């Protein structure tokens, strides 16, 4: 992750300091946050129609950010392949590569109500990318390299989250077995990683400041898993309740960390706040739709308001950091 408190020396010649070489893969987390807001607005639209128009606008913005980010990162890969390789071999940044395929899956899910054919193509591309990146990332984890306990953060959940996103739209399009395949893989690795992460949080040194916002990612796996499970089963049963209430429990743990979060300097890792909140908001709306619970509906709206404020703040702070030249700099 980039430490955005660093400012490049203006006296360094361009040939010695190329911002493109330092364009981080974590930029795709911005796409995830914006697309999460798009889907959350759409989930709340049945009871507030104006949100549908806001969702359509955010979809266009999210798609534009996705295209721009992809083009810049492709340019980085072509011009600075060694910089991409360095990110891939970084013990923390490695887990962020699946944000690329996750962004495609979220874009497909948000596009589905408007163009089902395009959404299916995007989804298929996302599924292939997610499958390849999941195997590649996990293979990297279990390779001959030895990782330190301090390298483990909730960001390692990202590949697992990507797998359980697959069924959210896949089941609706009829890809039932593919959906169960990815759901199973995602759940297995979530359970394994949850054990490792909790051990790291309890028995070892605290997560460094610029990565502490990734704590919010704890909310995402059970929230997305709930959406995936009910998409495949069409019912809110005991398993579904276990998943969504696990999301609420992790959300409560995150709320308890807000005083510490408020004191931290801005970094791109702050975008980790957005998608998990969106996932829990959408899950709450979906629970209310299937079960008729007014309480869950209200929770969904409260989380949506928080999400809008968080994303607005993140966009403002990211733009400010970019204008100050604090992003895409050497660590």
TrEMBL record:
Signal peptide: none annotated. GO terms for cellular component: plasma membrane. Pfam families: SLAC1 (PF03595). InterPro entries: SLAC1/Mae1/Ssu1/TehA (IPR004695), Tellurite_res_ion_channel (IPR052951), Voltage-dep_anion_channel_sf (IPR038665). The chain crosses the membrane at residues 20-45, 57-75, 95-114, 121-142, 154-173, 180-202, 208-230, 242-262, 268-287, 299-316. Keywords: Membrane, Transmembrane, Transmembrane helix. One of its GO terms (molecular function) is monoatomic cation efflux transmembrane transporter activity. It is a multi-pass membrane protein. The keyword Transmembrane helix applies. It is found in: Membrane. This is C4-dicarboxylate ABC transporter. It comes from Aliiroseovarius halocynthiae. The lineage of its organism: Bacteria, Pseudomonadati, Pseudomonadota, Alphaproteobacteria, Rhodobacterales.
